[in-house]
Automatic annotation (TrEMBL), chain A:
It comes from the Bacteria. It comes from Thioclava marina. Pfam families: ABC_tran. InterPro entries: AAA+_ATPase, ABC_transporter-like_ATP-bd, ABC_transporter-like_CS, FeS-cluster_ATPase_SufC, P-loop_NTPase. CDD domains: ABC_FeS_Assembly. This is Fe-S cluster assembly ATPase SufC.
UniProtKB/TrEMBL annotation, chain B:
NCBIfam families: sufD (TIGR01981). Residues 173-395 form the SUF system FeS cluster assembly SufBD core domain. Pfam families: SUFBD_core. InterPro entries: Fe-S_cluster_assembly_SufBD, SUF_FeS_clus_asmbl_SufBD_core, SUF_FeS_clus_asmbl_SufBD_sf, SUF_FeS_clus_asmbl_SufD. This is Fe-S cluster assembly protein SufD. The lineage of its organism: Bacteria, Pseudomonadati, Pseudomonadota, Alphaproteobacteria, Rhodobacterales.
Amino acid sequence: MLEIKNLHVKLEEEDKQILKGVNLTVEAGKVHAIMGPNGSGKSTLSYVLSGRDGYEVTEGEAELDGMDLLEAEPEERAAAGLFLAFQYPVEIPGVGNMTFLRTALNAQRKARGEEEISAGDFLKLVREKAKSLKIDADMLKRAVNVGFSGGEKKRNEILQMALLEPKMCILDETDSGLDVDAMRLVAEGVNALRDEKRSFLVITHYQRLLDHIKPDVVHIMADGRIIETGGPELALEVEKNGYAELLAKHGISEVMA
Amino acid sequence: MSAVEKMTPAEARLARVTLPEGFGPQRRAALERLTAMGLPGRRDEYWRWTNPTDFIAPEPVAAAPFKDDEPELFGEIDRLKVVFRDGVFDAEASDDLSMSGVEILRLAEAGDVNWASALYGTLEANGQKPVVRPFAALNTASATDGVLIRVTGKAEKPVSLIYTHESETSDPILHHLVKLEEGAEITVLENGPAGARFNKLMEVDVAKGARFHHIRVQGRDHERRAVTGIFARVADEALFKSFTLTSNGVLTRNECVIDIVGDDANAHVAGAALGDGKSGAFHHDDTIFITHDAERCESRQVFKKVLKNGAQGVFQGKILVKPGAQKTDGYQISQSLLLDEDSQFLAKPELEIYADDVQCSHGSTTGAIDETALFYLRSRGVPVEEATALLVLSFVADAIEEIEEERFRDAILTRLEGWLSRHRG
Ligand SMILES: Nc1ncnc2c1ncn2[C@@H]1O[C@H](COP(=O)(O)OP(=O)(O)O)[C@@H](O)[C@H]1O
Ligand SMILES: [Mg+2]
């Protein structure tokens, strides 16, 4: 599904190398988790994969089902089935959430040569998906993410994911800032989308999300690289011992991480 | 050399002013005002950023009429239509000028109607201080037609003024009066380019507890020029609301002068201007002056400009709070969204406050498209041009929100979307 080879990324404006050779393969139907200290490059990886400006790939490649991701426009990547749930969802005043959701869904349908969804069918679809995420009519009516609480913003990300039905979902710290109930809702939303064709890359700082979304594989990222890969037990180990030991083993100082 | 050739354009223009019949004393007084103040030059403080030359020239610059291919604006709204072709009233195309609660007359045929004689030129003359507005005085002196609307109750439907542009050299001057009696309410719609060069004035007198709504769309003609003025007086507990959408036009200067004279009144002026220098020059100027001369009144100025390919926007907005105008709530925001580096926005926000218990704020910003929001939309599969269009709508939303009724907001949004779809990339 997703294949990242030796990915090196620096900031466009600054001489600062952030990713220093990331290798990662996510197979269809699998859930991979990436954990790592703040500043290790997790968000950068998710942005580079989804096509945000400001980064320069100096080496390496990334493919989604054989499609070269790095050359494509962000909207082309989305149409090909890539989705990023943002760590900090963006507020767009003056644009209704419903308008936003319908525009996104229809844009992707169009890009795939499908027909636009009718207003009636769309309404039905949104209501159904929103209900299970406990997103009420008011949140759908309001401007995109404006005046949403942290938890509402994250649930709105999952709603978008549920509507767009991507095949590769990247979740960047979707658990941060959530209380236990909100986290359970989000995790249920994600679990409802799990199937043998859809893959997930769950970026998190804490292991607690992984109690709800059970990963198949866990990676530890530090200083722009994946330094350790294992099963769910790796997340538990980090939870118990922190990152210090792992970092030391790989000769990375905490400051660099 | 003849005497005419030695005149400056401004002198030649003044020499050509003729006073049509009706409202004789008011017109003569306006001409005296105009002669005393003279036509503006670039050195005048409020004309530094907008070149008045084309408004002064004795003849208008020729402007090709433009075929608007969009569905008729406000076409689905039940309204009373008053049509002017190049500034000439078109009885055929207009509706019967009668509706309950409203008296509608043509300026050219009004003769000496008492209420109109008392109002014609009065608010314009008041609004000449402290800043002169020569094109408004010129209008009062020489306007050839217009509508005089007196509202005594709640108007059963909006009055819709439609201005078409057919001759390349038309130079219409129209003057409207709107007088709302106590507790009355009306919506006045205006749309269309009106001519190659259009000078239009509207005097609006809003009595106690009355409500005035104004929604205007200036024509899509790329080559047209327009200088317009709204002069309003707002009494106790009254509401004045005006919104203008401008897309295209070589040169537009919209002035709005509002005197809030009664306690607990509200006055809101808003505008959205969209300019693309690629389809002809675009220069748009909003010059606003709101005077608070009563207690507990609220005023809002919300102006948004979207500029690309060398388009220019100007905002000059003032809030004057007179002594004793306590508990005034004055708000002013002017913002521009520059879609490239060739476009320019100039803003001059002014506050002058002579009362101590007031709350006034003003802000002005210039910015580009928010890259983070753009990426967010694109990451959801929305192509870059469509995403940009959505962000433009997001940017102008606050101004559109100033329109009270949803049906008018929708009509404006449709026009905005139309412009955006024609001006992509
Ligand atoms: N646009 C940027 N400008 C400056 N520094 C950046 C930018 N993006 C990332 N960085 C830096 O790159 C490093 C990795 O950041 P990030 O990818 O956000 O890490 P994480 O998500 O793992 O916390 C940090 O040192 C961060 O400050
Ligand atoms: Mg991060």
